[in-house]
Amino acid sequence: MIKSFKEVMILPVIVIAMGYFVDIYDLILFGVVRVQSLKELGLDEAGVMHWGSIILNAQMFGMLIGGILWGIMGDKKGRMSVLFASIIMYSIANTLNAFVTSVEQYAFLRFIAGIGLAGELGAGVTLVAEILPKEKRGYGVMAIAAFGVLGVVAANLVASTFNWRNAYIFGGVLGFALLFLRFKVRESELFSHTQSDDIKKGDFFSLFKKKELFLKYIKAILIGVPLWYVVGILVMFSPEFAKTLSIIGEVKAGMALMYCYIGLSIGDLASGFLSQKLQSRKKAYAIFLAISTLTVLYYYSLKGASANEFYFVMFLLGVFCGYWALFITMAAEQFGTNIRATVATTVPNFVRGSVVPVTMSFMFLKDSQGVLMAGAIVGLIVFALGFVMLYLTKETFHKDLDYIEA
Question: Would residue 49 count as lying in a domain?
Fold first, then answer.
């Protein structure tokens, strides 16, 4: 595996991995500073949870819009155009986040940041998948994801050391610094081959007009929702779950996110490596999805546990939900070059955006069912859908990507 990693660690992979690191830092920073920042803006405990979900949903809704925008742009104008434009947008938004004086301003800027953040991963994965040989592209995406998710560790460390406003400024500075490295990365040759007036590129609505494409697209989205249920509900609202579970000791969302994302980094490496060894994306995904289900059940059984044990389970949740790179690779491999960036960018952002209905369902059920039962009901639904959609998804490991969708 070490030899394979050395072979794929070319400049585009390294630069895109660094970009994903900054992307994750900015994406998760609100979760880390949620309580501190909202209390400083004058909210009580109830207001922190209420506005926390609103601001998180604003960010995720922005990612839904951005996913479509950048996906279409990536297929029409090129993968590199997205990597430049999106990072400029979210770097500006995150810098301005340091100067908010109201929750309304906060929500608006997280919405704008969400639009910008939506472009980084899909365009990067598409570019890497197209420039690496098919037997190596899994390792390339693994390297991007494994390094990128460590951005949450940086977010937690920076937020723990500095004021939350400075943490946002730091994210903006990282983004602008990354722009200079992007100038050395070239466009995908497969994309260049599609530059013909006869080829329709970036047609997002074609995914809904053709039954075969539509079914592949929906399945590609739904198999990834369990991961963001874990991150968006169980980890993001871990202080509230810890209180209900009577966890002994203080549980901080930033620490929970850090342990979860360290696990995600390890899981991305492990699931990607397993898929290479099994010569199957689908089998590796099924194994990790099954074990993550058991880990979620363990999470709900932690009543009266210590904070350290709770954090350890956060880490385990991350490890066994660490199939994000595998998920993006499977989505990119299922579609032709002329709509590949559209799919690879919209699918992960629709999954991230699924946090909106998932969170709304959780908040709706919470008042009548309680925190634990509400979380369990929502989790049962998303995991069941994930297993069914994965079963119906075709294997993509050996698929040649040099083709277009008619």
Answer: yes
**Cα separations in angstroms, 259 against 20, 156, 379:** 18, 10, 21
Q: Is 196 within a domain?
A: no
> Residue 18 is part of a domain; what is its CATH number?
1.20.1250.20
Cα angle 345, 193, 126 (rounded to 5 degrees) comes to 20
Range of the domain at 63: 2-179+206-392
pTM score of the predicted model: 0.77
Please give the chain's pLDDT, 406 residues, in tens: 555 556 677 778 888 888 888 888 988 888 888 889 999 998 988 888 889 888 988 998 898 898 888 888 888 887 788 888 888 999 999 999 999 999 999 999 999 999 998 888 778 877 887 788 777 777 887 788 778 878 878 888 898 898 999 999 999 999 888 887 777 777 766 666 666 556 676 678 888 888 888 999 999 999 999 998 998 899 988 988 999 999 999 998 878 988 998 898 889 889 988 988 898 999 999 999 999 999 999 999 999 999 999 999 999 999 999 888 889 888 888 888 788 888 888 888 888 778 888 988 998 998 899 889 999 999 999 999 999 999 999 998 888 877 777 6
Q: Which residues contact 52 (CB under 8 A, 6 or more apart)?
A: 34, 35, 38
